[in-house]
Design brief:
The complex is a heterodimer of chains A (about 450) and B (about 675).
Chain A: H1 5-32, H2 43-97, H3 104-125, E1 146-147, H4 150-154, E2 162-163, E3 171-173, E4 179-181, H5 186-191, E5 200-204, E6 213-214, E7 218-219, H6 222-226, E8 233-240, E9 247-254, E10 262-265, E11 271-273, E12 292-293, E13 299-303, E14 313-321, E15 329-334, H7 340-353, H8 359-419, H9 423-449
Antiparallel strand pairs in A: 1-2, 3-4, 5-15, 6-14, 7-14, 8-9, 8-15, 9-10, 9-12, 10-11, 13-14
Helix pairs in contact in A: 1-9, 2-3, 2-8, 3-7, 7-8
Chain B: H1 2-28, E1 38-44, E2 48-50, E3 53-55, E4 59-66, H2 70-101, H3 107-123, H4 128-190, H5 197-213, E5 216-220, E6 226-230, E7 234-238, E8 241-242, E9 244-249, E10 257-262, E11 269-272, H6 280-316, E12 330-331, E13 340-341, E14 352-355, E15 366-370, E16 375-379, E17 384-389, E18 400-403, E19 414-417, H7 423-426, E20 428-429, E21 443-447, E22 456-457, E23 461-462, E24 485-489, E25 495-500, E26 508-515, E27 533-534, E28 537-538, E29 546-551, H8 560-567, H9 588-628, H10 632-667
Antiparallel strand pairs in B: 1-4, 2-3, 5-6, 6-7, 7-8, 9-10, 10-11, 12-20, 13-19, 14-18, 15-16, 15-19, 16-17, 21-29, 22-28, 23-27, 24-25, 24-29, 25-26
Helix pairs in contact in B: 1-10, 2-5, 2-6, 2-9, 3-4, 3-8, 4-5, 4-6, 5-6, 6-9
Chain lengths: ~450, ~675
C-alpha cells in the first residue's frame, strides 16, 4: 500500500492521543478510587448505585431512628421500673397497715409514708425526657400530664386524678414497613386500670353493722359473665334469731336490670327499694327454703339454683367472711377504670381516718385494705403489661438493629461492587497503558525520522 | 539531423523541468490540507516517417493531473459529518453526564438530605432546632434544583450562541465555495481544457470543512461548478450564487434559536425544522438539544414539580407547633398556566392547561394545534398525536387538562406546552418559620375511661382538611374540630351512633344506628357523613362504650404527619402506567436514577458511535491519502529521476552541439 508522509504523522498523533486519553481515564479511576467516574462509563451501574445509595441513606436514617427508639423506650422502661418499685413499697405498706395490732397512730405514720409514695409516683408519671417533653402525656409533650393531690382526690368519693395529656402514642419509622411506638400515653399506664378483680368490683354498705368482710370475688366462667344480665347484684343479709343458734340468710338482689329505685330479688322475686338501707332485709319466714343460708368463708355462687324465681348465671362468686348483721349488704358492680393515684389516695384516707374500734369499723378497715390491695395489684399488673410491651418493642428494636446493620453492610458491598475499583487490575492496566504510550511515542519518532532526503547528497 | 536531436533534447529538458516543478509543488504542499498530489502526464511527440521507419521526435507533457478519487473523498465526507456530529454532541452531553452522576453535585444527596431532615424532625417533633434543620435541608434541596436548572439553562443559552456562530461559519464557507466556483468556471474557459487542480483541491477542502459543520451533498455541474445542498435538498450554493442561513428565534418558543434559510431571490426566509438539520457540529447541537437537554431539564423539573406537590399536599394535612394547619412548604409558580403561542398564530385563542394527575406526567413537551374544527395534541418526544376534541375542556392526555374557553383560534394555530420545563427553576421555599412545620396530625382519638369492652380506636389518618366541601369544613375554624365527634355503642353493641360532641354534656346524634364491623373505617358513614379523616375501631366494644375524635390541641410531640412526609421518599408517586394512572412506578430517586441512566447511556452511545465514526474517518482518510497524499520518499526519488532526465537531456543537447561543431569543422 502506498503511504503518504502526512499519514505517518496523522496516525502517529492519533495513536498517541488514543493512548493518552485511555491512560488519563485509568488515572482518573485510580485517583478517584471509582470504577464508574461518570455515568456513561457504566450507565446501569451508575443508576443502580444512586438507587442503592438512597437505600443506604434511608437505612442509615432508620438506624438513627432505631437508636432514638431505643433510648426513648429505655427511658420509659426505667421510669416504669421506678413505678413498679413504688407500687411494691405501697403494697407492703398496705399489707402492714392491715395488721390488726396496729394503733391508729401507727396507721397514720404509714399514711404519711404513703403520701410521700404518692408524690414519688406522681413525679414519675410527670417525668420528662432530655428535651423537656413529658413522657406520659401522649402527643402533648409540653403539657404536664397529671394533676391533683391526695387531698383533692379525697374531697369526694368520685374525684379522680386530672389527666391533661391525650391518648396519642408517638411512633418512629424504624424499617420500610414498621413504625414502632416510642411512648405510652399516661392514661393507659396510670389511669385506665380496671378496679376490683377486673370484671367486677365488690363493696360493702356504709351502714353495715356486722363484721362481714367481702373479698374481691372472682370470675370462673368469663363467657357466662360477659353475657350475664345482671352484672350488679347485692347480697342482703338477714339473721334469723328465732332459732338457736341463730341462722344467717342472704338474698341476692338484682340492682341493675330494674328501675333505679327498685331491685328484684333473684331468689324470691321480692322487690326492694333502692338504694338499700339498713332496714332492707329479707324475711326468711316469708320465703322458706328460697333464701340461701350463709356459711362463713364459703364462696357465694352468683348463679341460680333450682327453686330460684330467676334464672341467672354471672359465672362468678364472692366470698364473705365474718358475721354479717341483720340488714347488712355487700354489692358487686362491673369494673370501671380507677387510677393508681385514686387507689393510693383512697387507702391514705382510710388509714388517716382510723377506725371506730367497733366490729363494723374493724370490718370496714379490713374491707378497705382488701380493696386497696386488689386495686394495687391491678395497677401493678397494668404497669407490668405496659413494661412487657415496652420490653417486646425493645427486643424488636434489637432484632431490627441487627437487620439494619446487615443491610448497611449489604448496601456498602453492593455499592462497592458497582462503583469501586479493582486496584490491582487497574494499576496493572495503567502500567500497561504507559508502556503502550511509550512504545507509540518511540515508534513514531523512529518512523518519522526515516526519509530519503537524508541520503540525497 | 542534428536539429532533430536538439529538438528531442529540448523536449526532454522541458519535460524534466515540468517534472521538477510538479515535484517541488508536491513537496511544498505535502502538509497542505486537502492537497492532492499532482503528476505530469508525459507522452511521446508524433514520430516522423522516414523511409527507414518512424523516428521519434522527443516528448511532451500533455497535462498536469491531480491524483484524486471522488468516490473515496465522498466516503470521508460521509463518515466525517457523523463523526463531527457525535463529537459536538459528546462535548455537550459530557457536561450533563459529569453533573448528574456526581455524588456530591447531583440531586441524589440533596434528596437524601431533605428526607433525612424530615426524619430527624419526626424523631424530635417538638424541638425547634430539628425543625429548623429540616427547613435548612429543604432549602438546600431547592437550591440544588435551582442550581441544576441554572446549569442546564446556561448550556441551553450556550447552544443558542453556538448555533448562531456555526451558521456564520456555514455562510462564510458557502460564499467561498461560490467564489471558487466562479474562478473554476473562468479557469475552465481560459485553460483550454486543462483542469485547475489547485482550485479544485481548495474547493474540495472547503466542502469538507463545511461538511464538518452540517451534512452536505454536492453535485458537479457541466461548467465544473459544484452545487451544494443541505437538509433534504435545500440549495446552499448553486453555481456562483450562495444562499444565506439565519439563526432566528423559533416561532414555537422564542427562547430557542432555529435555523432559517434566506432565499437568494426575494430575501424572504424559510424556517428549517430541526429534523432537517443533521450531521456536523450543527446537527450535533440541534439533536443534543431535542434529544437530551429537553428531556433532562424536563426530567429534573418533573421531580421538582411532583415532589413539591406531594410534600405540599401532605404538609397541608398536618398541624404545626401552634396548632395551625400546615401551609405550603414549596412555592411553585408559572408551572401551570399559559402555553406559549406560536408567533405565527393568526387567531387570539389563549388556551390554559393544568396538571390533573401528577403521577402521569411525562418529561416531554407538547404541541397543541388547532385544525379548524378540533384540537390535536402532539407529544414531542415521540410525536404521538392525540385528537383531544373541541373543548372547551379537552381530553386529558398524560395528566394534562387543557381549557380552550378563552379567545378564538384560527386553523393551523399552535401552542407549545412545557408542563415541567421551568419547575426546577421556579421552585422556592414557602415555609420559613420552624414553628410552622406541620409535623403533627390535626386530629386525635381517645376512648372513654368508662369503657368496659375491649374496643380500641386507631390514631386516625387525615385525608383532607377541606371536607365536607359543600359546607364549612371540619377544620374551617382554627384549633377546633367542627364538630368534635363522639361514637357511642348502642345496646346491644353491634351498632353504634355518631354524635356531634360540641357540647359533651348533651351530644347531638348525627347518624345511627350504624352496623359495627371491627377494623373498618367509621367515615364516610353509610349516609355519607365525612369530615376528612379516617378512623378505625377494632376489638369488641361493649354497649355504652364511647370513642371520641378531637382536635389535636397542644399535640406538639405528635409526629404522625412527619412520618407520612418521610414515607414520600420511598413511595412510588411518579411514572404511572396507562392501565393504572393513579399508581406510580417510580420514587423521586427512582425517576432521577432513570434520568442518570438515560444520560449515561446516551453519552455512552454517542461516545461509541463517535469512536466508530472517527475510526471510519481515519480509515477512509488513510485510503484517500494512500491515493492522493504526498510521499516524501517518492518525491525524493522523482527529484532524482527528473534530475537524471534533465542531465541526460542536457547531454543530448551538448552532443547535438558537438555534432554541429564537427560538421562546421569540416569546412575549415
Amino acid at each position: 500500500m502506498r503511504i503518504s508522509t502526512s499519514m505517518i504523522y496523522n496516525s502517529g498523533v492519533s495513536t498517541i492521543n488514543d493512548k493518552t486519553s485511555a491512560m488519563l481515564h485509568t488515572q482518573q479511576q485510580v485517583s478517584s478510587g471509582r470504577r464508574v467516574v461518570t455515568p456513561s462509563d457504566d450507565p446501569v451501574a451508575a443508576a443502580r448505585a444512586l438507587d442503592v445509595s438512597q437505600a443506604q441513606s434511608v437505612n442509615a436514617q432508620q438506624g438513627t431512628n432505631l437508636d432514638n427508639t431505643k433510648s426513648s423506650l429505655g427511658l420509659e422502661e426505667s421510669q416504669l421500673s421506678g413505678v413498679n418499685d413504688v407500687l411494691t413499697r405501697v403494697r407492703e405498706l398496705i399489707v402492714q397497715a392491715g395488721n390488726s395490732n396496729l394503733s391508729a397512730n401507727d396507721r397514720r405514720s404509714i399514711a404519711t409514708e404513703l403520701r410521700s409514695n404518692y408524690d414519688q409516683l406522681q413525679g414519675l408519671a410527670n417525668s420528662s425526657d432530655g428535651n423537656g417533653n413529658y413522657l406520659f402525656s401522649g402527643y402533648m409533650g409540653s403539657t404536664i400530664p397529671f394533676g391533683g393531690t391526695v387531698d383533692t382526690l379525697n374531697q369526694a368519693p368520685g374525684n379522680e386524678v386530672s389527666y391533661f395529656g391525650d391518648s396519642g402514642q408517638r411512633t418512629l419509622q424504624v424499617s420500610a414497613t414498621r413504625q414502632i411506638a416510642i411512648s405510652d400515653p399516661g392514661n393507659s399506664v396510670f389511669q385506665q386500670i380496671p378496679n376490683g378483680n377486673g370484671h367486677f368490683v365488690t363493696s360493702y354498705a356504709s351502714y353495715n353493722s356486722g363484721g362481714g368482710v367481702v373479698n374481691a370475688g372472682s370470675v370462673a366462667d368469663p363467657a357466662a359473665w360477659n353475657s350475664s344480665v345482671p352484672q350488679s347484684v347485692s347480697a342482703v343479709f338477714s339473721v334469723d334469731t328465732s332459732v338457736i343458734p341463730s341462722k344467717t340468710y342472704y338474698d341476692l338482689v338484682d340492682t341493675q336490670s330494674g328501675s333505679p329505685t327498685q331491685g328484684t330479688s333473684l331468689l324470691t322475686g321480692q322487690v326492694y327499694t333502692l338504694p338499700l338501707d339498713a332496714t332492707s332485709a329479707p324475711a326468711p319466714a316469708t320465703y322458706p327454703g328460697q333464701l340461701r343460708l350463709y356459711s362463713d368463708g364459703q364462696p357465694i355462687s352468683l348463679k341460680s339454683v333450682a327453686g330460684d324465681t330467676s334464672t341467672f348465671n354471672m359465672g362468678s362468686n364472692i366470698t364473705i367472711t365474718g358475721a354479717p348483721a341483720q340488714g347488712d349488704s355487700f354489692s358487686t358492680a362491673p369494673s370501671t377504670s380507677q387510677s393508681v393515684f385514686k387507689t393510693i389516695a383512697t387507702v391514705i384516707n382510710v388509714l388517716e381516718k382510723g377506725n371506730t374500734g367497733t366490729s363494723a369499723g374493724v370490718a370496714a378497715l379490713s374491707n378497705d385494705i382488701g380493696f386497696a390491695l386488689t386495686n394495687i395489684d391491678q395497677a401493678t399488673d397494668n404497669i407490668l403489661t405496659v413494661r412487657a410491651a415496652v420490653g417486646s418493642r425493645l427486643n424488636e428494636v434489637d432484632a431490627l438493629s441487627n437487620i439494619n446493620q446487615d443491610l448497611s453492610l449489604q448496601y456498602s458491598s453492593t455499592l462497592s461492587t458497582l462503583q469501586d475499583l479493582d486496584y490491582a487490575k487497574t494499576i496493572t492496566d495503567l502500567t500497561r497503558e504507559q508502556t503502550d504510550l511509550q512504545a507509540a511515542q518511540k515508534s513514531f519518532v523512529s518512523t518519522s525520522q526515516l526519509s530519503l532526503f537524508t541520503y540525497i547528497q | 539531423m542534428a536539429t532533430g536531436i536538439l529538438n528531442v533534447g529540448i523536449s526532454g529538458l522541458s519535460a524534466a523541468q515540468m517534472g521538477f516543478q510538479t515535484t517541488s509543488h508536491n513537496i511544498a504542499n505535502a502538509s497542505t490540507d486537502g492537497y492532492s498530489r499532482q503528476s505530469i502526464v508525459q507522452t511521446t511527440n508524433t514520430p516522423l516517417s522516414f523511409g527507414s521507419g518512424f523516428l521519434g521526435q522527443g516528448t511532451n507533457v500533455q497535462t498536469v493531473q491531480r491524483v484524486y478519487s471522488q468516490f473515496l473523498s465522498n466516503q470521508v465526507l460521509s463518515a466525517q459529518t457523523t463523526a463531527s456530529e457525535m463529537s459536538s454532541y459528546l462535548e455537550q452531553i459530557s457536561q450533563i453526564d459529569n453533573m448528574v452522576g456526581d455524588s456530591s453535585a447531583g440531586l441524589t444527596p440533596a434528596l437524601a438530605s431533605f428526607f433525612k431532615g424530615v426524619q430527624e424532625a419526626a424523631a424530635n417533633p417538638s424541638s425547634i432546632s430539628s425543625r429548623q434543620s429540616m427547613l435548612s435541608s429543604a432549602q438546600s434541596l431547592v437550591s440544588q434544583f435551582n442550581a441544576l436548572d441554572e446549569r442546564l439553562t446556561s448550556i441551553r443559552s450556550g447552544l443558542n450562541t453556538q448555533i448562531s456562530s456555526e451558521v456564520t461559519t456555514i455562510n462564510a464557507y458557502a460564499a467561498k465555495i461560490a467564489d471558487i466556483n466562479n474562478n473554476i468556471i473562468a479557469a475552465n474557459a481560459t485553460g483550454s481544457g486543462q483542469p485547475p487542480n489547485d482550485l479544485l483541491d481548495q474547493r474540495d477542502q472547503i466542502v469538507a470543512e463545511l461538511n464538518k459543520v452540517i451534512r452536505v451533498q454536492t453535485v458537479t455541474q457541466s461548467d465544473g461548478s459544484y452545487s451544494v445542498f443541505i437538509g433534504n435538498g435545500q440549495p446552499l450554493v448553486v453555481g456562483t450564487q450562495s444562499s444565506k442561513l439565519l439563526a432566528t428565534p423559533s416561532t414555537d418558543n422564542p427562547e430557542q434559536m432555529t435555523i432559517a434559510m434566506q432565499s437568494s431571490s426575494n430575501g424572504g426566509s424559510i424556517i428549517l425544522p430541526d429534523s432537517l438539520i443533521s450531521g456536523g457540529t450543527l446537527g450535533g447541537l440541534v439533536s443534543f438539544r431535542s434529544q437530551t437537554l429537553d428531556a433532562v431539564q424536563n426530567g429534573i423539573g418533573r421531580i421538582a414539580l411532583t415532589l413539591a406537590k406531594n410534600v405540599n399536599d401532605q404538609h397541608a394535612l398536618g398541624m404545626d407547633l401552634d396548632g395551625k394547619l400546615g401551609g405550603k412548604v414549596f412555592n411553585l409558580t408559572n408551572t401551570v398556566g399559559a402555553p406559549l403561542a406560536n408567533t405565527n398564530n393568526l387567531g387570539n385563542g389563549a388556551p390554559s392547561f393544568q396538571i390533573s394527575n401528577y403521577a402521569q406526567l411525562s418529561t416531554s413537551d407538547y404541541r397543541l394545534s388547532y385544525t379548524g374544527s378540533s384540537y390535536t395534541l402532539t407529544r414531542l418526544s415521540d410525536n404521538t398525536v392525540t385528537d383531544v376534541g373541541n373543548g372547551p375542556t379537552l381530553t386529558t392526555v398524560d395528566g394534562l387538562t387543557i381549557n380552550t374557553s378563552v379567545g378564538t383560534p384560527t386553523a393551523n394555530d399552535s401552542w407549545l406546552i412545557q408542563p415541567t420545563r421551568n419547575a426546577a427553576k421556579n421552585i422556592s421555599m414557602a415555609l420559613t418559620d420552624a414553628r410552622s412545620v406541620a409535623l403533627a396530625a390535626p386530629i386525635k382519638t381517645s376512648k372513654a375511661l368508662t369503657n368496659t369492652g375491649s374496643g380500641s380506636v386507631d390514631a386516625g389518618v387525615m385525608v383532607s382538611t377541606t371536607t365536607p366541601a359543600t359546607a364549612a369544613s371540619a377544620f374551617a375554624t382554627q384549633g377546633i374540630l367542627t364538630p368534635p365527634v363522639l361514637i357511642k355503642f348502642d345496646n346491644p353493641a353491634t351498632t353504634y351512633t355518631v354524635y356531634d360532641n360540641s357540647n359533651p354534656s348533651s351530644p347531638t346524634a348525627l347518624e345511627g344506628p350504624i352496623t359495627f364491623t371491627a377494623g373498618s373505617d367509621v367515615f364516610p358513614t353509610p349516609s355519607g357523613l365525612d369530615y376528612g379523616y379516617r378512623i378505625k375501631i377494632s376489638g369488641t366494644p361493649a354497649s355504652g362504650d364511647q370513642f371520641t375524635v378531637d382536635y389535636n390541641s397542644n399535640g406538639i410531640s405528635d409526629n404522625r404527619n412527619a412520618v407520612l412526609l418521610g414515607a414520600l421518599q420511598t413511595s412510588n408517586t411518579m411514572e404511572s402506567t396507562a392501565s393504572a394512572p393513579n399508581t406510580g412506578t417510580a420514587s423521586y430517586q427512582g425517576a432521577y436514577s432513570q434520568l442518570v441512566s438515560f444520560v449515561g447511556s446516551k453519552t455512552n452511545e454517542v461516545t461509541v458511535i463517535g469512536d466508530a465514526q472517527t475510526k471510519l474517518v481515519e480509515q477512509a482518510t488513510a485510503t484517500v491519502q494512500s491515493l492522493s497524499g504526498v510521499n516524501m520518499d517518492e518525491e525524493a526519488a522523482n527529484l532524482l529521476r527528473y534530475q537524471q532526465a534533465y542531465q541526460a537531456s542536457s547531454k543530448i543537447i551538448s552532443i547535438a552541439g558537438k555534432l554541429f561543431d564537427d560538421i562546421l569543422a569540416l569546412h575549415n
